[in-house]
Amino acid sequence: MRKILFTILGVCALSSITAQNTTNSPTSMFGIGEISTGDGGQFSGMGGVGIALRGNSFLNATNPAALTELDSLKFTVEAGVMGAYKRYHQSASTNSSNVGNINNLGVGFRILPRWYAAASISPVSSVGYRISLDQQVEGTTSTISSYFEGEGGLSRINLSNAFLIGKRFSLGVNLSYVTGTITETETNGTATQTSTSYKKTFYADLGLQYKLPINKNKNIVIGATYGYSQPLTQDNSLSVSSTSGDETIDKSEHTVKQYMPQFFGLGLAYNSLKWTFAADYRYTEWSKMRSSNSIISFANQRSVKAGLAYIIGSPYKNPIRLMLGASIGNSYLIIKDYKATNYYVSSGLGLTLRNKNMLSLGVKYGDQTKVNKGMPHEQSVSFYFNLSFSERTYRGKLQ
What is the number of structural domains in the chain? Predict the structure, then answer.
């Protein structure tokens, strides 16, 4: 187990400085990029719900209070990847792309009888676009080609702690280090301008859950989460070069204020031997963000998610979980006073392997409404693969 733990943490540290290649959207050039929707993990087919979900082998970064449900005699390790096919429509043009990357990595365990902990990494945002434009030179019949390219994104490394208070109440906290580099290049004729922004901050969010038993096999879980706003420290630089000469100009660039947002969420879940129903509401304050582009502003997000799962066969011996889910919420990005609405539908399959390890598969279709004519319109089909496995520890080490 020590080798597994060190390997996971080593990959987490490496991934934290690696760009999240999960988008090729032209709108990812604004703000901190395309925001992660938080899907993945064991319940990836349930529409991204998580505030009130609990499980004995489930590392829930959405609400760290859920860690108190972990098997007290096991180390639990989760690893997940995602891939997506995306189409982008704008005016009369259509483009498509395939993207993919690590989606989640983590390890969790009990430290003391009422104290649980986990270490994990997950994406925050992703930047990835390539745009070519041909523009006519004013007063002439000639044209000049411009090329825009961006890559990078932000990741967060979480150290989560959860405490069981009494028999029903759990309190948790995620202590996070958010970091990443975004690089944007603009080429006009023989001149190339490259902007590089290294961003970082420490961030914390809280979670609580209250588990109310109905009878031996049924319960209701009420969950809540809260995160406070934190400014991103930025180290921005600008480099300008030309193929017509050997001179290169490097200088610091003005910083536009950007933040990790304040948010709060509420969740409710019903659990029985066969069924799980869950719903989340989340409000995220992005309006403090600023843009150097006059046609771009940022809006507070409101999202609603709902999902259900049904177990085929015996819930005690190699159960198979079927999942369905849906979510809807507005984009945090406003372009020319227009704000799109994003919606998703998803389904998934959870398989129990040997030693009660879990293999989860999910698929999600995403689309947009209220997209103004001439604005980018994105459609996507995303696939999720997650493996959760546990290794038993010695009882004496944990008591």
Answer: 1
Please check whether residue 191 lies inside any domain of the structure. Answer: yes
Residue 316, domain extent: 2-343+359-398
Q: Which residues contact residue 252 at a Cβ distance below 8 angstroms, ignoring those fewer than 6 apart?
A: 236, 237, 238
Q: Is residue 353 part of a domain?
A: no
Residue type, 108: G
Round the CA-based radius of gyration of the chain to a whole number and report it.
23
Domain annotation covers residue 118: yes
User: Could you give phi then psi for residue 380, rounded to 5 degrees?
Assistant: -150, 150
Over its length of 399 residues, how does the chain's per-residue pLDDT go in tens digits?
445 444 444 544 444 444 455 677 778 888 888 888 777 788 889 999 999 999 888 899 899 999 999 988 888 999 999 998 988 877 667 777 888 888 888 999 999 999 999 999 989 998 888 877 766 556 666 667 778 888 899 999 999 999 999 999 999 999 999 999 999 888 877 788 888 999 999 999 999 999 999 998 999 999 999 999 999 999 988 888 877 666 666 655 667 889 999 999 999 999 999 999 999 999 999 998 888 777 888 999 999 999 999 999 888 888 899 999 999 999 898 888 788 899 999 999 999 887 788 899 999 999 988 777 767 788 899 999 999 888 776 544 444
- Asked whether residue 389 is domain-assigned, the answer is yes
- 301 DSSP β-pair partners: 284
- The single-letter DSSP state of residue 3 is H
CATH code at position 62: 2.40.160
d(CA 165, CA 162): 10
First to last CA, the chain: 18
C-alpha separations of 390 from 81, 231, 387 in Å: 18, 37, 10
CB-facing half-sphere around the CA of 91: CA atoms within 13 A: 2
